[in-house]
Structures are given as C-alpha cells and as structure tokens.
Design the sequence.
C-alpha cells in the first residue's frame, strides 16, 4: 500500500478504535492515543520557516567524513570539530547553536534532508526565492506560489462567499513582510497577512501604529482602524486568539515572536492549515562568524534564534496538546559556496539541508552528508540530492493527504516529483528506527570498477548521473533480489570527475556521490 | 405634451442601476454627537489667505494639482516643478478643448435593442425622449463623464464641474431625460470658471433643474416652493448664523419664480430641450421680503415683463454678504478641507467672500487667491482630505496611465465597470444621494471620514490589489491591469529603492510614509534583503534588456507586492 493511501486509511479507521486495538501490539498504545487526539482536534498544520538570505548549509549541518578537506576550503568560517554537535551513527554534525534541534533529532522529531536544491541553480536572491516560493523550474517564470496554487485547486471560488460554515478560518496566515508570493494563486491571494508581529497585537487590542501628530495623523489613525476592522478574517482571528490566555515562554526574537503567534492561533482552534514565518539575516557574504571564535558571530546568532524559536514553539505546542497535528519545515533560497571568503563569510551557493520537524516527522535523515574533497574551487557548488519539489510534494501528499490537488511544479506538465518519506507511518512503524536502505559503496574514489549494495524490497533502479544532472546510464532496473542486494559495475568508459548514483526503491530515493579518478 | 416629473421613472432605475445607491451616512448611526469639532487640531492653523511664501516643494506641487484635478502624473511633476504657482494656475484654471459628444454605444443587437432614432456611433444629445432608451443613454452619459475626466490633461475644468455638481446638483436618474442631463452638464461646464451669479441665473431656468426641483410645476394656482427653498438654503445662502431668510421669503421667492417652465414639445421631439417664461402661470402680485433682505419689495409684473422679476430676485440675494460667504465655504470644504473651523471662517472664508464680491461673483480671483494662500499649503492641510471615490479611482487611473477608451463607442464598455465600482464606494457619477450633494462635504461631525467604512475600504483595497495583480474587471471578460513597471520607469531614480518609494508616495499618497510604513514597503520591494543593491541590480538588469523575460519577472515579482502594500497604506486614501 502506498504511504499516502495508508495514512488516509488510518484517518478513516480512527472512528473504530476497537479495530485498531485488535491489531495493536503493546507498543502501539501511545501512538493510538496520539492518533485519536489527531481525530478529535482540528486539522493538520504546516508551518513554513523561511530563512531569508540563503543559509550556509555547510555550517548548519556539517559533514564530518572529510573534516580536514572542509577546513582547507573554508578556513575563514570553519567550525572547530570539537565544538560540533555530533549526530550519532551518522557522518554529520549540527552547528553548536542547534542544541535543541539535535535533541529533537535524537527524539526522532526532526528530519535532516541533505542537499536540497533544484537543477540549474540561480544565484540571485530574488529569482531563487521566487523559484522556491513558486515551485517552478529554474527557467520557468511564474507569479503564483506552490501553496497558492494548492489552495486555488481546493478553493476555486475564493474569496467569493468566504469565510463560510465549512471554511470559517483563514486558509493561510503569514507574518512579516507583506503578501509573499507563496500564497498567491493565479487569480487571488489566499493568505491573511500580518505585516508584522505588532499588527497582530494591535488587532487584538483594536489599536494601530502610531500616527503623525496633527489632523492628518488623525485621519490616518481613523483609516487604519477601518482597514483593520475590515480584514475579512480579523474578527475571527481576534476572537479565536483571545481564548488562549497562557503560553509557555518564547524568546523575544523576530522568529520567537512570530512562532508565538502561530502557536497561539493553532491552539485557539483556528483551522488554518498553512503558516509562513520569516527569519531574515542569512545573506552572510562577510562577517558570518566572529574572527577569533567561529562558533560566535552573526550566523551563530541567527541559528540560535532558529533553534530557540523552534524549541519554544514545540514546547508550547506540547503544552496545548496540539503538537501531533503540526509539522514545520525550514527553507532558504540557496545554500552558500563551499569555498569561504577572506572576509569571514560565504557567497551565494546552491543545495543546502532542510529540516522537517514535528511529532509526526519521519525523523533521521535523507540522502547523505555532502562530500568535500578539499580540491573545490570558488565556483564549485554542492550538487543537489533532492529537488525541493520532492519535499513539497511529499508534505502535501503525506501530511495533507492530497494527491489530486498537488499543484503543477514544472513547466513539463507530466513531470512528477518522486516522494521521499517525511511523515511517520505511525501504524507500521511507530517507535522502531526506520529500516534504512543502508547503502554501501566501495571503493570511493573509484578507479575502474565499483560495488554498490543496499537493503531493498521489490523494484529498484540505479542511475548514474553527471554533476549537471544528465542521466549517463541506468545501471540497474528491476527486482532487487538478495538482502543486501549487490551490484558490480564498471566506470571505465567515464572520464575522471564527480558523479552521482541515484538509488530509487519504492518511494525513497538516495544518492551517492562518486569520484572517479 | 406629456410632462415628466422628477422620479417619475423610478420603477425603471433598477433595470439600469447595477449598484443600488449606497447610503454611507446610515452606517454611522447616531453614535456621533453633533456640533463637536472633530478635528480640533485644525485650529492650530494660523495662516490665512496671505500668499504662501515657504519653499514650494514637489509635495506642495502635488498637493495643488491633486486638489484641482484628479490625481497627478510624474510627467506633471516634472513639467511644473520649476514653475510658479501663478503659471500653474494660468494653465489649469482654463477651459479645456472640445470633447466629443456622447454617442449611441448602447445598441445591443443580441437583445434586439436598437435605437432607431440615433444611429450607432452618433450623438444622442438632441434625441427625442424615448422611455425605452433613456436609461441606456444615461448610463452612456455617465461613462462619457468618466471618459472626460480620464482624458483631461492639465486642467481644473473637470474638477470644477464636479465641484458644481456636488454644490448645485441634479440627479440624472430622477430627471431621466438624457438630453436634459447633458444640457445641465454643458451649462455647468460653460460656467465652470465663470460668474456664480450667471450660473445661478442659468440654472434657475435650466430644464434639468426645473424638473429636478419641480420649478416647472410652480405656478400661481399651485405653488411649488421646492426650488425656492433650496435656492436659498443650499445654493446661495445656507443656514449659517449669517443667513436670515424666512419662510415668508421662500414663499415670495416661489411666487417670483412662477411661470418658468419647460417647453415639453422640445423634450418629446428631436432637438434642444428648452424652457421659457409663461406669463399666464406667473403670480403678478407684489412680493414683500423680510428684514434680512432689507425689507425689499419686488413689484409684480404682468406679461413677459414678469420674467424680469427673476433678475431682481437674484440681485437681491447676491447683494447679501452671506451669499459670497456661502460660496466661499463651499469652495473651502471642497478644495481645502471639509471641516471649517471658527478660525478659518474669520481668516479665510470672510476675506475670500470679500474678493468674490469685489469681483462681482466672478470666481477666478477668489480661487486663485485660495490656491496661492499660506492656509492652503499648511502642513495640516496637505494630505488631510480623504479622497472621494473619483479622486481615488480616477486619480489612480491617471497616475498609472491606465488604458483609455479609443473612441466614444468604446467608452461604455471600458468605463461601466468603473462607474459601478465608484458607486459601490459611495459616489455614482451624476447622482449624489440628494440635492445637498455628497454628505462627506457637509455632514457633521464625520465629514470626509464618511467615505471610509469597513466595506468601502475593503472595496478600495480590492480595486488596487486587483489592478496591481490580477486585473480589475471592467465588464464581462474585459480586465485592466496597472503597468507598475511602466509607472516606475517614469520616476526619477527607480534603481534606488528609497527614491522609488518616496517618489511613488508623492504621486499616490497624500503624505510621505512614516518610518515604520516606509520600511514595510521597502522590505517587500527588497524581498527581505538588507542591501539596496539587490533591487538596483534587478532593476538595471531589466533595463539593460527589456526583452529578458526572466529579468522582467524578477522585477515584477518585487514591484507588484510592493505596490500592493503601498496602496494598502492608510495614506493612499489621503490627498
């Protein structure tokens, strides 16, 4: 059974707890309680955290397999190895500021997806941000967002006769900036916009920003009040939010303040499925780190803000008993260059890791930590292992159980993005660690021949791809027999250089970076 | 020949009026006490009619042009930046060229609706009354009035016509005779910059006014005081402290006016509609007026000479001090701010009234003095007016250089959506809610704040949002979109995000943005980036190759949301 239909099936079965009890192994007890919780609570929520400016992935999730190589290409920003938060049984570590994210990872409430990007990475903030927000190909020009199109599919009549009995609440809420492209459909915007944190509390208090002194200011005050009261969903949000009188402490930061509002709104029973919040300041061309101590400085502060904000958010969700129906995701328009700048920063790069978090997170990691050889030059970028649209598609499908309304995310209309597991399959796989493909590949670097082996059930496909994403050869396609399945193959015909092996089984895809010498 | 009375065709209005008249006053109910000065801070203005002597900045220039026309364009800023106020007024306070007459653009073959008298594309301003077509002709007349405003360039004429229509209105629907509506419009146009007394004289015997306030049915046997009352209460004197006409004065005014009526044949036949003086219906007795009018007596006359009583009546009314003050107050509340403080009454209204009287009710000298005065350019006045739906909608249209109808035939198709959109936010062209005009210009204590309520502000925002993003629906399947990129290209220094926002605010907003709001717009323009050069780079890339669709998309994806939020600012509704 496909994961998606499986979750759907779970949702439908919730009405008959006896049946579930019949299946139940003892370990299921806690999970069933959770699922029941899910059913009585309102709908599922996805919170998107936009790390604005292009986050340095290599200093966020640090690959450890060749630390000295990493040190040699990015000496100006490298984090000391002994300060890194190592993730057990993996070859990567978290930035020292991400202590809480590490504990979420350990509790299997946070997943690392390595090297997410898109083919033909664009280095412009504006353009790359539009690509991430719109879910387009890099040479496709859109002015609507992927969630905007998702909502447009589900609500073709919006905003006519909205809010209504079936959909009394905003379809999306964003805080910070004005209306982003994310929630723009082709014909209408779908989000309620809180331009800043202040405007939320002003809404609650029926106050507006301070106005200039004098008669002109008096008019501005009046118009702002009218504008506030005219917000289609203003009263609903206000009355809903007023039900929540206690929240656990949040850090007084840009992100903390935004997530505090999001948590409050979710806890208040507001049935809004999508939230966007924004954390700025990741455009770290210089002074990314403190010169004398790389574990300090601007980037550390931003990551700490992220870490503290998410942890406070998770704790508040737990306090309000709503954590099981909330998922979060971080994203940024690009990672940064492998090679660092002498000014203590990094320039615009390409692929970078994403975090997907929440009690229902699949946990662990997807893909593998980037491999650094030490021979990288300025123009080199991390190759992508996952297309960001795979993550979007997976979240929509596995979290919102929506296949039919998954929006088009490529100009090639038949293009489908293979899903990756992001949401835990709670019935079959409640607490056990996920059986991993556990890919073994040797030797690497390859001289002439190589061997790959992994655990697979059923159909598998192995593709050899060059660094620009071109398929060179399908090495294997068919039923992967044996446990582990093993394949010998030749690379004699290929010139020395970097290659990627794409291993696809079921709905998982993993990549292996290969160096041919 | 059949007479037509005001409102006689009420049953037909819903067939044509796609938006039922909006009552903006009702929603405020009685929670607001009368007599309170709403904006006491206006009392801080100490400047009077003395000429403005400060630095005349772009903001001052924009203020002047927005107040005397509709919106402003960057082109106008550039053209008049180095000119004196006098030079600007020489240009603007001048009748404009000829605008083609409204035409039959309402035939609808599909519905079998074909006006046999007026061929398609031909003017209907002389067409015989035809119950079947008057409604359509009036809608066409209204869209023609919108077209005039949108096509007007560097003239105060259209604003003056609106001033007069708000001050001395007829309601086109109530009158329901398109050629009479047109004639009334042309009468106001002809006198727009002229002499107030002449205007009142023409208006008194204008067929439109004779129907609207039923003067046509005022005769010696069955007097109708409707017009006689409004002539004094609303048009010439008002009900201020300085006004003292009595009920008896109204009665006698009505008697003076008996006999002025409409030649109904000219209504029902092709040709210009006419009014005339019918001595047989005239009250020939003497008319005795009160002490307010110096106990003047107007001697009753027989025969054609009875018509002369009207001129004597107007001489009497116009010789009062209050008449000029009333006009001055109307100018002030329309062009300066809706609320008149005691200080403004003494230091602006009274001296302005003196100028009006010194010039025998020629209005231009008074207007010039007002538009050059220190009071007019006081910081409490610049931006203090809430844009009426015309200023908001049509001003935006002109500032952005939105597409215009190519011909009178296209006018209806293009502008009917605008007509009903403006009606929805409180102002239907040619039909103020009543004879007193649009309430925001007189209704104590809310005044122009009446324009804004939770419904109208949402509709205003929907208009700007859709113009920037998805296109505003004009009719059926026809949409119009603001070319934000083109607008920005016209600005002085669009590659600098700060200049871009400030220069746009100058054109579109009544005052500059405060620091919080400015940052909000800039954050959106920069998509959250902290460095200005990210915008500069994106803009220059687009300018370097305008055929580069990617560069254009990048620019548009910044500009559209930035203008969306800019136009959602409260300051957008001010001028």
Sequence:
């Amino acid at each position: 059974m496909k994961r998606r239909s499986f979750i759907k099936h779970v949702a439908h079965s919730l009405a008959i707890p006896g049946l579930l009890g019949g299946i139940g192994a003892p370990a299921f007890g806690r999970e069933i309680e959770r699922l029941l919780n899910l059913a009585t609570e309102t709908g599922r929520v996805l919170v998107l955290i936009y790390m604005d400016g292009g986050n340095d992935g290599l200093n966020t999730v640090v690959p450890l397999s060749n630390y000295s190589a990493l040190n040699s290409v990015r000496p100006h920003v490298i984090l000391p190895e002994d300060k890194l938060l190592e993730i057990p049984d993996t070859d990567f570590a978290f930035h020292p500021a991400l202590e809480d994210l590490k504990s979420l990872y350990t509790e299997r409430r946070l997943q690392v997806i390595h090297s997410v990007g898109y083919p033909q990475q664009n280095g412009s903030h504006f353009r790359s941000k539009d690509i991430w927000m719109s879910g387009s190909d890099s040479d496709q020009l859109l002015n609507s967002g992927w969630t905007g199109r998702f909502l447009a599919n589900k609500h073709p009549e919006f905003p006519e006769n909205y809010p209504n009995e079936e959909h009394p609440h905003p379809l999306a809420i964003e805080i910070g900036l004005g209306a982003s492209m994310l929630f723009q459909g082709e014909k209408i915007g779908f989000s309620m916009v809180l331009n800043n944190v202040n405007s939320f509390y002003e809404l609650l208090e029926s106050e507006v920003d301070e106005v200039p002194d004098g008669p002109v200011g008096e008019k501005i005050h009046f118009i702002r009040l009218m504008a506030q009261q005219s917000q289609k969903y203003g009263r609903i949000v206000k009355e809903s939010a007023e039900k929540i009188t206690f929240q656990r402490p949040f850090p007084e930061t840009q992100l903390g303040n935004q997530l505090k509002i999001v948590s409050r709104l979710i806890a208040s029973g507001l049935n809004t499925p999508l939230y966007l919040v924004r954390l700025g300041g990741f455009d770290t061309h210089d002074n990314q780190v403190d010169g004398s101590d790389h574990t300090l400085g601007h980037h550390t502060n931003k990551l700490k803000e992220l870490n503290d904000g998410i942890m406070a958010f998770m704790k508040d969700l737990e306090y309000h008993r709503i954590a099981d129906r909330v998922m979060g995701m971080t994203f940024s328009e690009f990672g940064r260059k492998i090679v660092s700048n002498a000014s203590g920063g990094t320039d615009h790069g390409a692929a970078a890791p994403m975090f997907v978090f929440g009690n229902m997170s699949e946990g662990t990691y997807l893909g593998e930590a980037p491999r650094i050889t030490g021979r990288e030059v300025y123009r080199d970028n991390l190759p992508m292992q996952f297309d960001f649209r795979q993550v979007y598609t997976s979240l929509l499908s596995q979290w919102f159980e929506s296949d039919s309304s998954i929006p088009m995310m490529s100009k090639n209309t038949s293009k489908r993005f293979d899903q990756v597991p992001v949401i835990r399959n709670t019935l079959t796989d409640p607490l056990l660690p996920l059986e991993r493909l556990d890919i073994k590949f040797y030797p690497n670097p390859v001289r002439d021949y190589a061997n790959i082996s992994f655990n697979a059930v059923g159909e598998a496909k192995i593709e050899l791809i060059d660094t620009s994403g071109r398929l060179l050869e399908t090495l294997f396609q068919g039923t992967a027999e044996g446990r582990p399945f093993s394949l010998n193959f030749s690379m004699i015909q290929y010139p020395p250089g970097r290659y990627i092996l794409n291993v696809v089984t079921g709905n998982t895809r993993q990549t292996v970076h290969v160096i041919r010498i | 020949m059949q007479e037509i009375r005001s409102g006689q065709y009420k049953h037909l209005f819903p067939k044509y009026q796609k938006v039922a008249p909006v009552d903006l006053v009702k929603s405020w109910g009685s929670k607001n006490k009368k007599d309170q000065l709403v904006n006491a801070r206006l009392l801080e203005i100490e400047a009077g009619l003395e000429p403005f002597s400060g630095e005349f900045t772009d903001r001052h220039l924009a203020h002047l042009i927005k107040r005397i026309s509709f919106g402003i364009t960057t082109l106008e800023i550039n053209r008049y930046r180095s000119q004196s106020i006098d030079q600007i007024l020489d240009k603007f306070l001048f009748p404009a060229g000829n605008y083609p007459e409204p035409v039959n653009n309402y035939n609808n073959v599909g519905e079998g609706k074909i006006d046999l008298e007026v061929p398609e594309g031909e003017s209907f301003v002389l067409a015989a009354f035809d119950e079947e077509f008057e409604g359509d002709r009036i809608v066409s007349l209204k869209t023609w009035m919108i077209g005039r405003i949108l096509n007007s360039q560097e003239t105060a004429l259209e604003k003056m016509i609106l001033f007069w229509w708000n001050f001395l209105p007829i309601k086109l629907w109530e009158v329901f005779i398109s050629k009479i509506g047109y004639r009334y419009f042309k009468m106001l146009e002809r006198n727009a910059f002229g002499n107030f007394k002449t205007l009142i004289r023409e208006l008194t015997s204008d067929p439109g006014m004779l129907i609207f306030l039923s003067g046509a049915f005022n005769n010696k046997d069955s007097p109708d005081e409707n017009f006689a009352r409004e002539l004094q209460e609303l048009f010439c004197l008002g009900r201020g402290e300085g006004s003292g006409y009595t009920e008896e004065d109204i009665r006698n005014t009505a008697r003076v006016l008996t006999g002025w009526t409409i030649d109904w044949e000219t209504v029902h036949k092709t040709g210009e509609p006419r009014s005339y003086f019918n001595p047989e219906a005239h009250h020939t007795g003497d008319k005795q007026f009160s002490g307010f009018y110096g106990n003047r007596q107007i001697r009753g006359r027989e025969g054609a000479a009875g018509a002369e009583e009207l001129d004597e009546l107007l001489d009497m009314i116009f010789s009062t001090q209050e008449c000029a003050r009333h006009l001055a107050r109307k100018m002030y509340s329309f062009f300066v701010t809706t609320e008149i403080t005691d200080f403004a009454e003494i230091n602006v209204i009274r001296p302005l009234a003196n100028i009006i009287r010194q010039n025998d009710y020629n209005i231009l000298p008074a207007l010039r003095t007002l538009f050059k005065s220190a009071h007019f350019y006081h910081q409490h006045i610049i931006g203090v007016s809430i844009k009426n739906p015309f200023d908001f909608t049509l001003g935006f249209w002109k500032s952005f250089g939105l597409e215009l109808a190519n011909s009178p035939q296209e006018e209806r198709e293009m502008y009917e959506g605008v007509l009903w959109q403006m009606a929805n936010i409180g102002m239907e062209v040619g039909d103020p809610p009543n004879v007193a005009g649009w309430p925001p210009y007189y209704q104590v204590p809310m005044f122009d704040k009446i324009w804004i309520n939770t419904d109208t502000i949402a509709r205003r925002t929907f208009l700007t949002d859709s113009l920037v993003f998805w296109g505003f629906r004009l009719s059926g399947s026809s949409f119009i979109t603001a070319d934000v990129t083109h607008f920005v290209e016209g600005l002085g220094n669009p590659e600098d995000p700060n200049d871009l926002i400030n220069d746009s605010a100058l054109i579109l907003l009544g005052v500059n943005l405060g620091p919080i709001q400015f940052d909000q717009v800039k954050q959106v323009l920069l998509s959250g980036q902290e460095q200005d050069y990210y915008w500069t780079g994106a803009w220059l890339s687009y300018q370097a190759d305008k055929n580069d669709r990617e560069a254009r998309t990048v620019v548009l994806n910044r500009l559209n949301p930035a203008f969306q939020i800019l136009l959602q600012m409260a300051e957008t509704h001010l001028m």
Notes: Residues 298-319 of chain A form the longest helix (22 residues).
